[in-house]
Amino acid sequence: MGINGNLGNLIFLWAMLVGVVAMANKQHRPFEQAKGINGLDKLIIRDYRNRSVEVYLYGGQVTSWKNAKGEDLLVMSSKAIFEPPTAIRGGIPVLFPQYSNTGPLAAHGFVRNRFWEIEANPPHLPSKTYSKVDLIYRSSTDDLKTWPHKFEYRLRIELGHKGDLKLTPRIKNSDVKPFNFTFGFHPYFAVSDISQIHVEGLHNLDYLDQQKNRTRFTDHAKVITFDSQLDRLYLSTPNKLRIVDHKKKKTIVVYKEGQVDAVVWNPWEKKVSDLGVEDYRRFVAVESVAVEKPIILKPGEEWKAVLQMYVVPTRSSGHPHILKT
Ligand SMILES: O=P(O)(O)OC[C@H]1O[C@H](O)[C@H](O)[C@@H](O)[C@@H]1O
């Protein structure tokens, strides 16, 4: 075979290789798609150690985050309702464009009651992780009747190399006039027993007591412990908060950027219709929020934040052993 023949073979092989790689890239998605409760679409991100994150397109809501032992680090209410337009109680609800009842909209806004989509080619967002999914929710014509501002909400959900869970929200003003919003993520973190944990990182900060018409107080306690209902909005908090579980000897680290406030909530025995009577014992909500100073976006502008969560062993001193992130 002459030089031309060899060159022809090489070109043929190269074209085959390019084709195979392109097909593999197309078919091998970093997540599986499945049907969840009541036929609602869900996505499952899994890594090589069988750690996983489950996300419902309804609400763009993470409903499970499991470690390699199959333990869920988030809690779902035993009475959670998977029927739109009801919001799903548990996991990590997405709160936008309004936190709680701080404005004229329904509590916690409306994107937790909307169907999100997978975005195959989102605008560039660097990441070292393969196990991830990008979601998007674009305001609909119906939404504009309740909140007259066009927006695009992109949410990247990643399972990190150390089993950490990272959420990166990006909100873009796609309208012709500025708007402002308040914002939050509402994780229901799994704990051994609510009376066996404390939350730290909020010492000496001001908070609005949501059980007392948001009256302002300063928290002088070193850590927050729980023996009754608690619902506080802490203002301008550090980036890192910790949930120390004494019984499990584990600490959940909550790292946040761009959401300067934080809510700590446990309803205790207060009646919540879609929460099982004993469910309050198994979770604490430590929410990363931006409430006191609403975020303002001009037309075309985009806002980005981060919420990253990971679990580390608690040392015998009671202090968490923090790994570098
Ligand atoms: O019942 P939801 O609208 O889901 O709200 C659940 C809870 O969310 C937040 O944590 C608020 O601080 C609480 O006041 C509220 O009860």
From TrEMBL:
What is catalyzed by this enzyme? alpha-D-glucose 6-phosphate = beta-D-glucose 6-phosphate
Q: Name one GO cellular component term.
A: cytoplasm
UniProt EC number: 5.1.3.15
GO MF annotation terms = carbohydrate binding; glucose-6-phosphate 1-epimerase activity
Broadest EC class assigned to this enzyme = isomerase
Family in the record: Belongs to the glucose-6-phosphate 1-epimerase family.
Record-given protein name: glucose-6-phosphate 1-epimerase
> Which organism is this entry from?
Arabis alpina (Alpine rock-cress)
Q: What is the lineage of its organism?
A: Eukaryota, Viridiplantae, Streptophyta, Embryophyta, Tracheophyta
